[in-house]
Design goal:
heterodimer, A: about 80 residues, Non-ribosomal Peptide Synthetase Peptidyl Carrier Protein, Chain A, 4 helices, B: about 150 residues, Ribosomal Protein L22, Chain A, 3-stranded antiparallel beta sheet, two-stranded antiparallel ribbon, 5 strands, about 45% helix, about 25% strand, fatty acid metabolism (chain B), lipid biosynthesis (chain B), magnesium (chain B), 4-PPantetheinyl_Trfase_dom_sf (chain B), holo-[acyl-carrier-protein] synthase activity (chain B)
Chain lengths: ~80, ~150
């Protein structure tokens, strides 16, 4: 299992969603970001799992509703 | 004349009660029927060899589903239709207030006549009759699902 690395999270987030890093804020949310739909959400989860060698619970996958929440949930797995 | 009025009232009463009973049956029936639909852009599945998409497929499609789709000359429409199918099934199941299931628990494979058959590998779903229809054009894949809870 890798350690918590906020830059790596943001890089994956930007790469999968195709969003510039300077547009990513903690409040950037699933339901207000056109690029962030269910398919991209699952790709994000798959990339996080692969990169950090973790398996994310279904409840946490559903709870990842904004970027801040993603960091919070991944922090739980990586510490 | 009075007899005719009496009979008319009787028929009205009968029809009224029949309507009430039918309404109740339909109401009960509707509580055991779930529907779901989804539409996906096929182009988003064309880069299935990219890291993010490949990781996503590995995580959310069963081995048999991946083998089936990737055996095709053009896998993308098959991958898109299956993903739309999984989304439609999840929506239909949610409308029945059944605890949420997740993509890898759903397997969609075609039978010998090409009809998509659904298997759900989780509890709470044993008594569900699931009918799924998949379709695609050159650009989009679509799925429609009806689920009947067997009582």
């Amino acid at each position: 299992m890798a350690s918590f690395n906020e830059n790596a999270i943001k890089n994956i987030f930007c790469e999968v969603l195709g969003i510039p890093a300077d547009e990513v804020t903690d409040t950037l949310a699933y339901n207000s970001c056109a690029q962030w739909d269910s398919l991209k959400h699952l790709q994000l989860v798959a990339m996080f799992e692969e990169k950090f060698e973790i398996e994310i619970d279904m409840d946490d996958i559903i709870a990842m509703e904004n970027y801040g929440k993603i960091k919070e949930i991944l922090h739980k797995y990586l510490t | 004349m009075q007899i005719m009025q009496f009979m008319g009232a009787g028929i009205d009463n009968y029809l009224y009660r029949l309507q009430g009973a039918t309404g109740q049956i339909l109401e009960n029936l509707m509580q055991d029927i779930g529907i779901g639909t989804d539409i996906e852009e096929i182009r988003r599945f064309e880069n299935f060899r990219d890291r993010a998409v490949a990781a996503f497929l590995e995580k959310n499609f069963t081995r048999e589903e991946r083998e089936y789709c990737l055996s095709k000359d053009a896998p993308a429409p098959h991958l898109a239709a299956r993903f739309a199918g999984k989304e439609a099934i999840i929506k239909a199941i949610s409308s029945l207030n059944i605890p949420r299931i997740f993509y890898p628990d759903i397997e969609i494979l075609n039978n010998e006549r090409g009809v998509p058959c659904v298997r759900i590998n989780t509890e709470h779903c044993e008594k569900l009759c699931i009918k799924l229809s998949l379709s695609h054009s050159s650009g989009m894949a679509l799925a429609f699902c009806i689920i009947i809870r067997e009582v």
